[in-house]
C-alpha cells in the first residue's frame, strides 16, 4: 500500500511540475516599468519614455518576425486578447492560456504604460506624436479599440494643435476615427461631425460610410478591397451586420436565386452561409436556391353568367 501511495504521490508532483513549467513558458517577460496611475513614476521621465518606446517597437518587430507568412501574422494580430482592464487587474506577471495572446497582451500592456507616462508628464512634442501614431496603428491591427480610440482622440485634440500633423497624417488618423465611429459604434452623426471638423476627404472613407448608412453590402465590400490594411481592419466591425442585412434583403426580394449569384453578392460560399449564418434555404441539383416558396393565389369560384332569352316577336326599334 505504501509503495503504490508513493508512486501516486510522485506522479502528482511530476504533473504539478510539468504544468508549472508549461505555464512559465507562456508567461510574458516581467516588465521593468509599472503604471503611472498605480504610483510608478519612472515613465514620467522623458529618457525612460524614449527607451521604453524602443523596447516596445523591438518587441513588436520580433513578434512579426515569428510568423511564417503575412496571412499567419494577420491571424495572430486579429486573435482575441483580454481587454486592457482585465490585463491590468491580473498584474504584469499574469499568465495567459495562449502564447501568442500573451505576447500581444504584453505589447498592449506596455503601450498603455507608455501612454500614461506621456500624458502624465504633459509631454507634447515630436516624440509623443510619433509614439502615438505608432501605437494607434498597432492597436488597430490588433483590433483593440480600448487602446486606439482614446489614443486617436489624444493625438488629434491634444497633440495636433501644438505639434501639427502633416496633411496626409491628419487625413489618416481622422479617417480612422470616422471609420471607428461608423463601423463599430454605428454613431453616424458623430462620424460626420469628425469628418467635417478635420475635413476628411478620402473618398474611400466616405464611400464606406455611405454604404453602411444605405445598407449597401456590395458597395461596402468593394470599398474594403480598395482601402489599406488599417482601414480594412476597422471595417471588419461592420462586416457581419452588413452581411446579415444583405441576406434579409435577399430573403424578402427573391423566391429563387442562383447559387453563384448568392455567393458573389454575400462574398461567402454556400456552405459557409449555412454553417456560419444559419441560412435555412434549400438548393437543388441545378444550383438554384429556393429562398421562399411562392404562394399560389386562391382560386375564386366565379358564379355562372345568367342567360337571357329574348322573345322572338320582340322588336327593338318599335
Automatic annotation (TrEMBL):
GO terms for molecular function: hydrolase activity, acting on carbon-nitrogen (but not peptide) bonds, in linear amidines; metal ion binding. Signal peptide: none annotated. It comes from the Eukaryota. PANTHER family: CSN8_PSMD8_EIF3K DOMAIN-CONTAINING PROTEIN (PTHR39398:SF1), YALI0F14311P (PTHR39398). This is CSN8/PSMD8/EIF3K domain-containing protein. It comes from Choiromyces venosus 120613-1. The lineage of its organism: Eukaryota, Fungi, Dikarya, Ascomycota, Pezizomycotina.
